[in-house]
Amino acid sequence: MAFLSLENVSASHDGRHDVLRDITLEVAKGEVVGLIGPSGSGKSSLLRALVGLLKPHAGRITVAGQVLDYGSRASLRAARERFAIVFQQYNLFQNMTALRNVALAPTLVKKRDPREVEAEARALLERVGLGTKLNAYPDELSGGQQQRVAIARALALKPDILLLDEVTSALDPELVTEVLDTIRALRAEGMTMLVVSHEMAFIREVANTVVFMDAGRIVESGPPARIFDAPESPRLRDFTAKILRH
Questions:
Q1: pTM over 0.90
Q2: Residue 16's pLDDT is what?
Q3: How many CB atoms lie within 10 A of CB 227?
Q4: What residues make up the domain containing 89?
Q5: CATH assignment at residue 95
Q6: Residue 59, SS3 per DSSP
């Protein structure tokens, strides 16, 4: 049984024009799925639908066999406990230290013991290579460091599945590697992840499965070697020919 399953999922922003069309996808526990495709193809919308920021109007999503009902507040809360999402903009609280940014949600939202949460937050920042930056404020950190704080903040919620939406696209090129190294480490630890990225070489390296989307649909999916070296659909062949030429 798949750990995460999407069956014929569709969603729209306005109730008329679907940005996701009949999405069917299965993700195993510990698997990394790379989502690629042109801008506007539905990659980010798929992540937003999983956490209920964009509510599906058709289809079914299950995690560990549990059906998620996005029309129910209780089920939506349960869904959001399963997932954590990191966006390309870090969205850190500028008046809080790195440690406080990571510890805030588990303390306030989940009502956990502050001392226990702080100890975990310290360990998470150490895990993403920021053990010496616990008391630094966001404006004292580089973009790559801020993004790693954002990843640690997501991990503090203890998600089953981590969703990463273009987490390197707002970074200067020299800062990209440190964030990608963090994702590599999470993969090695067995974190289940869906990763939207334009870093094709990285997706090829880190993903178990690559999903190519266009116009809100999954056009083709498979192992990285097949997707990049032997694409079957004309649309994917055209896409890879253009992106791998540069």
A1: yes
A2: 78
A3: 25
A4: 4-243
A5: 3.40.50.300
A6: strand
CB atoms within 10 A of CB 92: 21
How much is the pLDDT for 174? 80
Q: Which residues contact 25 (CB under 8 A, 6 or more apart)?
A: 4, 5, 6, 33, 211, 218, 221
How many residues can be counted in the chain? Answer: 246
Residue 181 and residue 145 in contact, taking contact as beta carbons nearer than 8 Å = no
Show the beta-strand stretches assigned E in the chain.
Answer: 4-12, 18-27, 32-36, 56-63, 66-67, 83-86, 161-165, 192-196, 209-214, 217-222
* Assigned token pair, 228: 């990049």
**Cα–Cα distance for residue pair 32/123, rounded to 1 Å:** 23
Residue 76 Cα to chain centre, angstroms:
18
Give the model confidence (pLDDT) of 115-128 as tens digits: 999 999 999 999 99
Residue type, 91: N
Give which of 200, 165, 34 is closest to 88, Cα–Cα. 165
- Is 111 a residue whose pLDDT tops 90? no
Number of domains in the chain: 1
- What mean pLDDT, rounded, does the chain reach? 93
Token pair of 105 as six digits: 């949600």
State the alpha helices, DSSP H only, in 87-163: 98-108, 114-127, 143-155
Rg (Cα) of the chain, in Å, rounded? 18
pLDDT exceeds 70 at position 107: yes
Q: State both tokens at 226.
A: 């097949």
On the question of pLDDT at 38 being above 90, the answer is yes
Q: pLDDT tens digits for 176-229?
A: 888 999 999 999 999 999 999 988 999 999 999 999 999 999 999 999 999 999
